[in-house]
Design a protein that fits this description.
Layout (H helix, E strand, L loop, with lengths): L24 E5 L4 H21 L3 E6 L2 E7 L5 H7 L8 H10 L9 E5 L5 H8 L3 E6 L6 H6 L7 E5 L8 E6 L2 E6 L7 H5 L8 H15 L5 E6 L2 E7 L4 H17 L3 H4 L9 H13 L4 H7 L12 H8 L5 E5 L7 H7 L3 E6 L6 H10 L3 E4 L8
Parallel strand pairs: 4-5, 5-6, 11-12, 12-13
Antiparallel strand pairs: 1-6, 2-3, 2-4, 7-8, 9-10, 9-11
Helix pairs in contact: 1-7, 3-4, 8-13
């Protein structure tokens, strides 16, 4: 597979098959970069593993080798239907899985690399044709799909076929600055049983599935990482922070933004007809954040009929307090109770982590105070 360039445009890059007789992917259309391939390989592993654990279809939206969102197929709420111009009953399960994944953080998903656990159908192809995206990886394509996708981005849209039954070799290696590092590929499966064995409390089936989805998403997110999920959708990803509580705060802020996008004040922003979808999303997020610069206020007058009053602290607190039964998965053990205190602020009532913290009693006490069920899976999920 020819690569356009490496991590940066001035770096040449190439791929080398470990086994010429058994490639893991096949390029159908487009010309990938080094990061495109990393996104595709990581994204495909996420949806493949989640589909094995929960059934499919599963979708994820990747940016810079971490997921911006991931989701199972399911119903779209009114905000998703408004945002993605989807009428009820008009979409296939694969299409709903992708919309639900992209809606987690639609600002970050702009120009994403998409992965779907099953074949791409025409319904999903038409959704992809309407969004800004760099490419997709899937195990197959229904007739007519490749023709639709190959026309995107002036013919440069990436269409990559995964080999569904490919299994990686026992060991993988990485060469960095003249040194080759090797490690075993085998990972402990994340299953429903892993989420119920770590607690004596009764967990409902939907909670267990949300914990599985959140944990597998964390497994393919750059560490340290924390993920929130609810109703088969990841709602917030905190990726690549050196401090775990910073991961929790970052992911939690994304959960808040997702939920506040459903507030009546945000939904009633009167955008003028010429304003594009992504610009509407970006303005909604800025309105939620509430710290407009003077220049932004001037530009806002050009895109809305009436400049809205900001959400008050009371409005925000009242609305955010209605979100509950959210799950959280942490790729490493939770070291201090501050993570629990922060998670509770964003509706978390179930938390899965590997366990083993030196301050486990402190963490457990915090969960009891916040009425949070803590699951210790015994499996660390670091990813670098």
């Amino acid at each position: 597979m020819e690569l356009r360039y490496g991590t940066n445009p001035e770096q040449s890059a190439r791929t080398v098959l470990i086994d010429e007789s058994c490639p893991p992917i096949r390029l159908v259309s487009g010309s990938p970069s080094y990061i495109n391939v990393l996104d595709a390989l990581n994204a495909w592993q996420l949806v493949r593993e989640t589909a094995l654990a929960l059934g499919g279809p599963i979708a994820t939206s990747f940016k810079h080798v971490s997921p911006a969102g991931a989701a199972t197929a399911g119903a779209l709420d009114a905000v998703m239907e408004e945002t993605w111009a989807a009428g009820p009953g008009a979409l296939s399960p694969a299409a709903t899985a992708y919309i639900r994944a992209r809606d987690c953080d639609p600002k970050s998903s702009f120009g994403d690399l998409v992965a779907i656990s099953g074949p791409i159908d025409l319904s999903l192809a038409h959704v992809l044709a309407s969004v800004v995206s760099d490419g997709i990886i899937a195990p197959g394509f229904e007739p007519g799909v490749v023709d639709i996708l190959a026309r995107k981005k002036g013919g440069s849209y990436l269409v990559i076929e995964s080999v569904a039954d490919f299994e990686p070799p026992e060991w993988e290696c990485r060469e960095v600055f003249g040194l080759r590092l090797e490690q075993q590929c085998a990972l402990t499966p994340i299953t429903r049983g892993a989420m119920t064995a770590g607690t004596s409390k009764e967990l409902g089936p939907s909670v267990v599935d949300d914990l599985v989805l959140a944990a597998i998403t964390a497994r393919y997110t750059q560490s340290n990482s924390v993920t929130f999920a609810k109703n088969g959708m990841v709602l917030g990803v905190g990726a690549g922070q050196q401090s775990r509580v910073d991961c929790t705060k970052l992911a939690g802020s994304k959960v808040d933004t997702w939920w506040l996008r459903r507030h009546s004040a945000v939904r009633s922003l009167g955008f003028r007809p010429h304003v594009r979808r992504q610009d509407r999303i970006n303005w909604q997020v800025r309105y939620i954040e509430g710290d407009f610069t003077l220049e932004e206020r001037r530009r806002l007058r050009e895109v809305v009929d009436v400049v809205p009053e900001p959400l008050t602290a009371g409005d925000r607190a009242s609305w955010l307090g209605q979100l509950t039964n959210v799950v959280l998965a942490s790729d490493g053990f939770i070291p201090f109770r501050d993570n629990i205190d922060q998670a509770a602020r964003h509706g978390a009532r179930f938390i899965a982590h590997p366990g083993g913290s030196a301050r486990a009693d402190e963490v457990t006490t915090a969960c009891t105070e916040h009425d949070i069920i803590l699951v210790s899976t015994g499996t660390r999920l670091f990813h670098h």
